[in-house]
Design brief:
Layout lengths: L19 E9 L11 H11 L3 E4 L20 E10 L2 E6 L18 H10 L3 E5 L19 E6 L12 H18 L5 E4 L12 E6 L4 H10 L2 E4 L5 E7 L4 E3 L3 E2 L6 E8 L5 E6 L2 E7 L6 E7 L6 E7 L5 E5 L2 E3 L1
Parallel strand pairs: 1-2, 2-3, 5-6, 6-7, 12-19
Antiparallel strand pairs: 1-8, 3-4, 4-5, 8-9, 9-18, 10-11, 10-13, 13-16, 14-15, 14-17, 17-18, 17-19
Length: 333
């Protein structure tokens, strides 16, 4: 990689990109991380080939790679500066760091130190994400409660794998789902994200997070994640739309629908999951199931009201039960 200079830091905004849905990977490693063998140039080329709009550089416990990314960012690819903070009792992603800003990692849950390091990131406008909470190695399994963070990496890498270090995504999803209703009631719920944790060729973008942002900038993308205006896709061939509608209003993922006594129609449209299954989930658990046709494109509708559901979220799975997509909730008042 080239020697870093201040001039090579990437811009925080891609020019001319207004409100819309943007796809990106918020957990990516290059040669500066243990076990990774990709250069920034290779990662940027792969991101563009996959149709990603943004990625975050998150090396283990160092900001040394920030200055290498400037030549590879552009109006078509936003690069968010970050770090994977590998504490003794769990990892987390610090996203939206200033150029060269690093975060301390040498502590564990018994040290009662994580709070001040999270605050350090937030003071600079950054976002803090619990990374792969159920990774099957001692310091990878998170001992910190989800409520410490702004979001949770519910999906890390390929959904299911026999690799000994692969995160247990099913366990993370179940834990996140159990805590969602309580968090929404308190007003401090943690949205879900999904990232590849790419170390090797062929991993980038599997999965990635699709975010509604006011523009393609670091601040706007992180604001969309923080608000839960996002969903997670296995690949760029998968598309999901979740809406909740009354007679006079319609909202989407991460938004709030006040319905009083009105009936609510929840709709899901899916592309790219052949013979898959759509399920809807509320605080009562699984409430609706529908099967997609062989071509992978279809929709389903479910009717409810605010007495029956305080939120609704969607999952889409392949016939082998591996996840193809999941959404953050729509909140029903």
């Amino acid at each position: 990689m080239p020697e870093p200079t201040p001039a090579t830091f990437p811009p925080r905004r891609a020019a001319g990109r207004g409100p819309g849905w943007y796809r990106g990977d918020l957990h990516v490693h290059s040669l500066l991380s243990y076990g990774a063998d990709l250069t920034p140039a290779q990662l940027a080329a792969a991101a563009r080939a996959l149709g990603l709009d943004f990625l975050a550089t998150t090396e283990h416990n160092t900001a040394d790679g920030h200055a290498h990314w400037g030549p590879y960012a552009g109006d078509d690819l936003l690069v968010i500066l970050g770090q994977e903070v590998t504490t003794h009792t769990g990892h987390w992603l610090a996203l939206g760091l200033d150029p060269g800003q690093s975060v301390e990692w040498r502590y564990g849950v018994r040290d009662d130190a994580i709070g001040r390091h999270l605050d350090q990131v937030r003071r600079h406008g950054g976002l803090c994400v619990a990374a792969h909470p159920h990774a099957p190695y001692p310091h990878g399994t998170s001992m910190y409660p989800y409520r410490c963070f702004d979001a949770v990496e519910v999906w890390n890498g390929r959904w299911a794998s026999d690799l000994p270090w692969n995160a247990d995504n099913e366990a993370t999803l179940a834990e996140w789902g159990r805590h969602l209703a309580y968090g929404l009631r308190r007003g401090d719920w943690q949205p879900a994200v999904g990232n590849s944790d790419a170390h090797l060729a062929g991993q980038l973008g599997t999965p990635h997070t699709v975010v509604h942002a006011e523009q393609l900038s670091t601040e706007a993308v992180l604001a969309g994640v923080r608000a839960g205006r996002s969903w997670v896709a296995e690949s760029s061939t998968v598309d999901v739309t979740l809406t909740a509608t009354t007679a006079d209003r319609s909202v989407g993922v991460g938004e709030r629908l006040t319905a009083e006594d009105q009936p609510i129609t929840v709709r899901v449209q899916v592309v790219g999951v052949p013979s898959g299954t759509i399920t809807l989930h509320t605080e009562r658990g699984l409430v609706h199931r529908a099967t997609l046709p062989a071509d992978g494109s279809g929709s389903t509708a479910w009717r409810t009201n605010v007495d029956e559901a305080g939120f609704v979220r969607a999952e889409v799975r392949h016939p082998n039960r591996h996840l193809a997509a999941l959404t953050n909730p729509i909140i029903l008042d």
